[in-house]
Every structure is written in C-alpha cells, then in structure tokens.
Amino acid sequence: MSIDKPVKFYSSKPRVIHMAINIALAPALLYLIGIWPWPPTLPHYITFFVTGLIGMRYAKQRLEQARLAVDKDGLYAGEFYPTESIRNVQTVMRALKLTLVQDGEVREKIINLGWASNDDFNTIVQLLDERFNPKS
User: Fold this and answer.
1) At what angle do helices 42-64 and 13-25 cross, to 10 degrees?
2) How confident is the model over 21-32, as pLDDT tens digits?
3) Alpha-carbon separation of residue 135 from 19, 86, 129, 132 (angstroms)
4) Which residues lie below 8 Å from residue 26, measured CB to CB, with a gap of 6+?
5) Cα(105)–Cα(87) distance, rounded to whole angstroms?
6) Of 88, 116, 114, nearest to 101 (Cα)?
7) Which residue spans within 33-76 are E strands per DSSP?
8) What is the block-wise mean pLDDT of the chain (136 residues), using blocks of 10 residues?
C-alpha cells in the first residue's frame, strides 16, 4: 500500500451512532429510576432538547474528523508523530504501541483504536506494519 497521498481513518459509524443515541436518551433514565415524575414538564423537555443537540454534535464531530491519518511525513493521531522518530509499531489488543525516539531518548506511546471498525483496524495494522516495520 503506497503512502504518496494521505490515508485517513474515521470513527466507525455504528459506534458513533450508538453513542449519540445514548447521549440523547440519557435523561430517560431519570424517569426509569423514578427521580423525575411523569408526565414531563418544560424543564424535562428542555433537557431532552439539549442532550439531543449534544448527541448530534458528538456524532457530527466524530464522523467528519479523521481520527488517524498516515502520509509520507508521519502519523497523525491526536498529535503528529514524524516518520523519522517512529522506530517500531506493535499491535497490543485494539491499540498501537509506537516506539519513538525524540531528543535522543526512547519513549513509548499507546494509541487506542477502539473507535475503528474491524476492517479499518486490520487495514491500519497492515499499513503501519509495511510502513514502519519493513522486512529485511
């Protein structure tokens, strides 16, 4: 797989939609456990409206923003990791363990990939393995 152009990965749509629904419907739990009386009143409707907006905003952010991008310059995952500083990439559970050399010292960084679909996860692992762990 060539990295001449940037390869971007986004959050898994089913996971984002599930979380957005959970955020939007969280106030319904207050009815179920008996804290809020039935029928709903104006403050309850306002709360449902606000949490609905928060859920939609959450989904929009996660679906439009790339969570991970790889190009010839390096790896972008919350912050930028230049190609020159990455010495090794290992897969640990559903995460990546980067071995970095910065300012002459070796450090490790864990990047969680729980947001990625299974296909994206396998593609990311294959791409980074080819890029940063070349076979001699």
Assistant:
1) 160
2) 888 888 888 888
3) 40, 16, 9, 10
4) 51
5) 12
6) 88
7) 68-71, 74-76
8) 73 87 87 84 90 91 88 86 86 88 87 87 87 67
